[in-house]
From TrEMBL:
InterPro entries: AP-4-A_phosphorylase (IPR052908), Histidine_triad_HIT (IPR001310), HIT-like (IPR011146), HIT-like_sf (IPR036265). Residues 4-110 form the HIT domain. A motif (Histidine triad motif) lies at residues 95-99. It comes from the Bacteria. PANTHER family: AP-4-A PHOSPHORYLASE, HIT FAMILY HYDROLASE. Coiled coil: none annotated. This is HIT domain-containing protein.
Length: 111
């Protein structure tokens, strides 16, 4: 189920740059580095631990596709991949999302 009060369920304002049946990837609106992507399940899940096993596979496939896209477009020197779960850990959007953050030697990104 998708929720009208969830910004990541409002597909008209989210443009997927990569997608498969169960997940999509889009640019973070406030990137901590050039190429910061978010990967979400298409179905609303409150946080990472609520994903189904097929969704975990779909998300993981997109992480690898995101790496290929970012390697090609930006040639980063490394990556941070991270998930915040619950407010105490910094989750601000309550639709599960995985951060894929390219890193560049000497950058001052703070994931
Ligand atoms: P969190 O702190 O929940 O792990 O990360 C939420 C992320 O979502 C932040 O990096 C923030 O910049 C991004 N974000 C929040 N609202 C929007 C939005 O409407 N569009 C996009 N593209 N990113 C968003
Ligand atoms: Zn949602």
């Amino acid at each position: 189920m998708n929720y009208s009060n969830c910004i990541f369920c409002q597909r008209e304002q989210i443009q997927f740059v990569l997608e498969n049946d169960l997940a999509g990837a889009f640019w973070d609106r406030s990137p901590v580095s050039t190429g910061h992507l978010l990967i979400i399940p298409k179905t609303h899940r409150d946080n990472y631990f609520a994903l189904t096993t097929p969704e975990l596979v779909a998300v993981n496939n997109l992480i690898h596709e995101a790496k290929a896209l970012l390697d090609h477009d930006f040639q980063p020197d490394g990556y941070n991949i991270g998930v915040n779960i619950h407010e105490a850990a910094g989750q601000t959007v309550m639709h599960a999302h995985i951060h894929v953050i390219p890193r560049y030697l000497g950058d001052d990104a703070h994931p």
